[in-house]
Every structure is written in structure tokens, then in C-alpha cells.
UniProtKB/TrEMBL annotation:
CDD domains: EAL, GGDEF. This is cyclic-guanylate-specific phosphodiesterase. GO terms for molecular function: cyclic-guanylate-specific phosphodiesterase activity. It comes from Pseudomonas duriflava. Its EC number is 3.1.4.52.
Amino acid sequence: MPIGHHSWLSAFRLRILHRVRRMSELQQHLRDVSTTPTGHTELARRSAGVIGLLVLCIFLGASLILARIAFTLNQDELNRSQTLVQKVFDARLETVSSTLLNFAYWDEAFEYTKDHIDLSWIARQESMGRTLLAQYALNGVLIIDPQDQTRFAYIKGQLTIDRPQTWLEGDLNGLIHKARAMSFEQQTAQAYFTVEGKPAIVWAAAIRPLSYPLDVPAERLSVIVFVDALGENSLSQMAKTFGLNNLRHDTSNTDVGLDLSTEPRIRLTWDVTRPGDALLMVMFPMLVLSIFIFSFITWHLLRRSIKAARQIDLSHEAMLKSEARFRDVAEASSDWIWETNAHLTVNYLSDRFGTTTGLNVNECLGKSLQELLLFDQNEFMALAHSSLRHNKPIPCRHTDVNGRERIGNLLVRRIDTQGVVSGYRGTVSDITDDIEAKAYILHLSQHDAVTGLPNRTHAYEILQEKLAHDLTEHTGFALLYVDISGFQQVNDALGHSAGDRILSKVGQRLRQIVGPDSFVARLGGDEFVILTAPLSSTALSTLCETLLDAFEQPITASEQELRLGLCIGVAQAPVDSNDSQELLRLADIALHEAKANGRRTWRLYNAEMKKRIQERRQLEQDLKQALRNDELRLVFQPRFDIASSQLIGAEALVRWEHPERGMLSPAVFIPMAEETGLIVELSDWVMHHACLEANRWDASVFVSVNLSCIEFKRSDLVDRIRQVLARTGLSPSRLELEITESVMIDNAEGAREFMIELKRLGVKLSMDDFGTGYSSLSYLSQYPFDGIKIDRSFVMNLADPTANNQAIVKAIVALGQSLSMRVTAEGVETQEQLDALATLDCDQAQGYFLGRPMPPEHLREQIAALSWPAAH
Ligand code: C2E
Ligand code: CA
Ligand code: CA
């Protein structure tokens, strides 16, 4: 993991640590406040309900109390006015009664009214009546004689006689008798009468002497009667005097009233002021208003508090979520969290500590941080007290419960409480696995999985490291470039897993031979490199020979014993070069030379090799030019039918007319063209010109063109030939393609498919240089060849009966016949050879004896003759 990544992570971890601690404190607080996340809102809602109910109760209560007060006030006022009226009335009765008594106890009147009334005296008393009426607001004053006759009546300001009986409706006689009966008591008789439809109070008292005792019986007494009609005037005067409102006589049963008499029914009523109603009128609207205002304020406050409560609930919920999130992160992280006091005594360890170290968290609390971890305390303090909040990890080590050492990165922050350092906290990330993984990855990146040997990258590193020192001839070393020849074929034949096992064994064998002082690496494929310790030239050649010898021993893989060849190219440092790339290149040049010299060789690099390489490279460049500058030529070598001695075809052979080096043989440039891939372009040129030339020949003569095995490795082969035929217009049956055995060895199945397709085009195929390769005779039957060209080497000493070539040629001819393939003998140089071939029943022949490769115009002439060369 890169450092940058680490510090970023560390910062993140510390932030989380801080958050987690803060969160858990907060959460504790919140847990105290409420248990459920929606608790506050619910609580506020419930209180709102209760408060609403309370307000309603207060309102109802206040209304009741107000109504009650109003009722009481009204009632009190009613009672008061009733009492007042009663008192007023009583007082009136009393006043009138005592006034009447004053008149009744009257000596003079007694003398004039006993037994019978002296009318003349009565007449003189008119003023008395007027005075009484006026002074006491009476309506009438009567004097009744002992015979119950009214002798004096002063009614409504007029003196009348004999009227009272009609004016006063009631039992006047009864009242008079009662008054006489009470003449010995100081009292008056009272009764209620009706006067002109209005109620009236009537008092009566017997007239008796004041200054002497009554000496006559009551029947002889006259009676004085006062009438007080409760008319409007009288009542309104009474009302005025005592502050009563609308005092009146009313027999309807109102709740306010004073019943004076039942027969006749006399009832006084008046308008009572209702102070309770007035109070209600004023207070009730005020109560309603104040309740309304109070309710509104309460509602508003409750709404706000519900809103606030919801806010609290939401933030509480968010906090719980956030806390859970950070806790998960902290737990999911591989780090553990610690906290100490100012003296580094551990007072908190996260659960991860236990998981990571296997130690018991509780047992470790109270210990010193240095007891748990090994770290540089100076660095710890420097970082903790630095003013920057950086995240530089401090390396630390500790031993886990299994006694295994673990490596960690420690991060620290100091805890400031009101400006004083009260402790430290931080994280430890266990990077042991990282480090081990890194080491493993490094090993993987430097080693080859198949052989376990160092790989190309690592080999370069080691090489550069070695070359970095100042090397002398004595401290120098050799670089051996090793190539396993034949490995590719084995790999193809036995499969990759067997190939891998072989490579592994090759690696082991190399290691074993070179010993611990040398370095062996696999560069890839079947190429290995060895860097030796300083060694003498004899020791170097001994080493190379030992290596070659060692590979004489077969290697066993997949129950098969394999004999692999070894080629070694050697370059020396600092003698040849002290540049790593150059040294490898030189060793590769030497390897090339070694390969060119056989399957089991080694070559030490020398300057000549470099020269050859340079020449070759120059030639490569030149060949590219040659194609463009039209420096290639074609020569044609004729082929004859042995039996009829007819010219039946010609093989096109390429030549290069090099501007400096003259005419070059294909043996010089064809392998190079194959290596560089130029062969395709070259071959196209050859085929094109060969076909064009063949078009000028007699139609019975075919042209034969050589194909390289490289061309069979490219998928466009068939198309190319189709195009050549199309462009030149040559009949496919007049084109023969010569293919060597190597094509089949390199790419057996693919080659067969190509051949089948080529056959479909209509061209002919022949196997060139037959007998030089590894292929067995049985091979042939599987491929659609039209003919076989027996290699020159078999024809060479055909005439020599001691060599067994005759038998071989005979066998090949027989094979060809059995497979219906025409057999051509190449390299026929003598008449004897030709004769022998004829005897062996060989079909066709080609060679210097019959015709050397010649310029096209010469061949054309010969074709025109169409006959066996006259010269032979
Ligand atoms: P090859 O296909 O076996 O061609 C026959 C070679 O044997 C020719 O050599 C020819 O000159 C030579 N030769 C013919 N008769 C005799 C004889 O009686 N005695 C002796 N000693 N040699 C004889 P050349 O032209 O130098 O070609 C060499 C090889 O180069 C050819 O061998 C062929 O494999 C390759 N080659 C030539 N031209 C081409 C080409 O156009 N394309 C490809 N791919 N290969 C070519
Ligand atoms: Ca050939
Ligand atoms: Ca040949």
C-alpha cells in the first residue's frame, strides 16, 4: 500500500475515532432523555392534549364560578329589596297605626262620639281629615258611629257622608267590631280592602279617652278608620322614598314580590336591579376573550414545542444512525482504537483490539501503553504535541496471544481538556498481513511460477546491480545465455503441463550444476540466463562443458525419457561490455552462433561475431531495397520425364543480383528473409514472375515454386496463391508448390488443412528434399501430395553399389507408386545416375546433368525444342 494511501486512511480513522467517542457520549445523554426515537414529539403531543383539556376545564370552572357569583349577587339583591319593601311596608303600617292610635286616644273626640256622634263636632273636624290625608298620604279618613254608620268621611280631599260602604269593598263592619274589641288594647285593627279596584290598607281603632279610663262598653264607641289605597301615587312615593324601582301592585306570580293579603289578593312587585347579570355582561366576554387569548398563546407555544420536539427527535434519530454508521465503520476497519490518560495508562480499547491481538481487553485496561506496544516514545510525544494535526504513522510492534510478533502503524492525538493535556487517543492498524503480502507479491513479481527461478525482471535487476560495481578482469563475471533446443517440439507433443515440468527440471539441473555462487534465472520460453561468480577462462569453459554434459542425461517427464540439447552463448563483463543490455545482446549473438553450429555447443562471444551480425543486418537492409529496386532474378531448372525423356516442367529458383556482391545464392538470403518475415514479399514476387513466365511456355509445361515453412504459419497463404493465379491468369494445374518436411513437423494439423485448401484451388503439391527430415514414410499418406522429390543426397552415389541408396530410392519409388505420387529424383549429375533411376522405375529427374538452372529465355528455347537435350 503506498504511503499516501496510508496517511489518508489514518486521517479517516482518527476522525472516525473522535466521532465515535463523541457519539457514544451523546447517545448516553439521549438515552437518559428518552427511550424511543419519537418520544419527544409524542410527549409534546400528549402534553398539548392535557393542556388543552386543562384550559377547557379552567374555562368551564371560571364560567361556573362567574355564573354562581352572578346568581348569588342577583339573589342577594332580590332578598335585600324584598326585605327593604317588607320593612318599608311594616314601617308604614306602624306609622299609620300609631298615628291612628294618637287620634283614637282623644278625650274630646271620645266625648263627642260615644253613644252617638255629634255631627256638628264632626263638621268642625274637616281640617283634621285634610291634614291627615296630606301628612300621611292617606286616601280616606272615616269615623263610624256606634251604630256602624259612617258619620264622617274624608275621601280624596272631600268630605262626604254615607259613601264609604260603596267606596270600600270589604267587611268594614267586621273590622269595626274587631277595633271595638281591641279598645282596651293599645292596638289597631287592620285589614285589606279594595278601593276602586285597587288594594287598600284599612286601619280601625275605637275612639276612647286618653286622660281617664274608658268607662263605657266598647259597643258604645265610635271607630276611626284610616284608608290607605295602594294606588300609583302612594306606591311611587313609597318607591321614591326607599329607592325602589317601579313599585306596583301586580297579582301575577313574578319571583319578586311581597304578598300582603290573600283575600283580597294583594301583591306588590317592583323591578329588581340584577347586579349578577351586569357582572355577567361585563365579565363573561372578558372571560371568553381571555380564554381565547390564553388558548391561542398556549396553542402557539405547544405548536412550537411540538415542532422543537420533532426536531429533537429527528436529530436524535440522525445521531443514532450516524453513530451506528461510524460504529460499523470502526468495527469493520481492521484498526483498533485506544485511549490513555496523560500518563499513558490505557483506559479504553475498542473491541477490535481483542479480535486482532487475541488478548483480553479488560485485562489490558490499566496497563501502560508501552506495555502493550513497542514504539519510539520520543516520536510519539513529538507527534502528539505537534501543533499540526498530521497523520504520520509511528511504527510499532507487539506480540499477539500466540507469541507471534505483529507490526502495526500507530496514530496519536492528544486530548485537550480546557487547554490541558488530559490524555491521548489514536488507532493502531495491523499491517503484518500487508507486509507479508507485500513480501509475497514482491517474490511473485521477481520469480517465475513454473521453475521458481528468478524471472527476467529480477535477472535484469541483479545484472544491473552487479554491473554497478567497478569491475576489473578479476572481479568480472560471465553471462551465460542458455537455450534448450528441441523444447518447443516436446512442448507441442506432450502438452503444456508436461512442458512446465520439464522446464522445472531443467531449472533444477542448472541450479545444481552452477552452485550457490552463481545466479540462475529464466528469461521466458526455453531461455535461461546464468550470472557466474568471478572465474578464470578455463573454469568458464569447464562450466560450459559440464552443463552440456549434464544435459546428455535424459530428463524424465510424463514417463518419457527426453534428450534435450543445450546451446550456450557467453559474454563477459567487463571484458565484452559493462552495460546490461549490451551484455545480454552479445551473449545472444554468441548463442546464435552456437545454435548455428549444432544442438550441443557453446560459444564465447568475440568481435568477429559482431562483425558477422552487422554484415547480416546490412544484408537485411539491402534485401528490403532489393525488392524495391528489382534486383531479384529468376532462373529455371527443367524437369524431365525419365521414360519419355520429355521436358515436362521447370523449377523457379531465385537469385539476387546484389549491386556490390554480385549474384547471390538463395542459401545466403532465404534464411534471413525467413527470419525477418521478408520471405512473404519475396515469395509473392517469385510466384508472380514464375507464373508470368510459365504463361509464355507450351501449355504442357508446368512451373514449380518453392514455399517456405514460414508461409505456412500465416493464414493468408491460400489467398495469396489464389491472387497470383488470378493476376497472372495461369491455369492452376500448371503450378506446382514444393513444400519441405519441416512444414509438417512445425505445424502438422494446420499444414494439412492448408494443403487441402490449396488442392481445392487446383494446384499441385510436391514434397521437397524428401528423406532429410524426421518424418517417417507413413506420414506421407496423410497429406494430399501429388509428388515426392527425393533429396540430392540419395541420388549422389546411386551408382555406387556399396551404398544402400539404391534400396532407399527403390522403397521411395514403391511408396510413391502405392500412394499414386510421382517420384522425382533431384541432383542428377551423371548418365549413370539417370540410368540407375530409370532402372529403379523413378518417374522424373532434375539435375545439372539434365539442365542447370538457367535464365528464362534459355529455358524458353529449350521448351521450343521440347526434346531430350541433344548434347547428352
Ligand atoms: P532446392 O529446392 O532443393 O533447389 C534445388 C537446389 O539444388 C538449387 O540450388 C539448384 O541449383 C541445386 N541443384 C540442381 N541440380 C543440381 C545438381 O545436379 N547438383 C547440385 N549439386 N545441385 C543441384 P539453389 O538454387 O541454390 O537453391 C537452394 C535452395 O534455395 C533451394 O533448394 C530452395 O530450397 C531454396 N530456394 C531457391 N529459390 C527459392 C525460392 O524462390 N523460394 C524459396 N522459398 N526457396 C528457394
Ligand atoms: Ca525445390
Ligand atoms: Ca530440393
